[in-house]
Amino acid sequence: EVQLVESGGGLVQPGASLKLSCVASGFTFSDYWMSWVRQTPGKTMEWIGDIKYDGSYTNYAPSLKNRFTISRDNAKSTLYLQMSNVRSEDTATYYCTRYPMGITDYFDYWGQGVMVTVSS
Amino acid sequence: DIQMTQSPASLSASLGETVTIECLASEDIYSNLAWYQQKPGKSPQLLIYYANSLNDGVPSRFSGSGSGTQYSLKINSLQSEDVSIYFCQQNYDSPWTFGGGTKLELK
Question: Is B101 in contact with A45 (Cβ distance < 8 A)?
Answer without folding.
Answer: yes
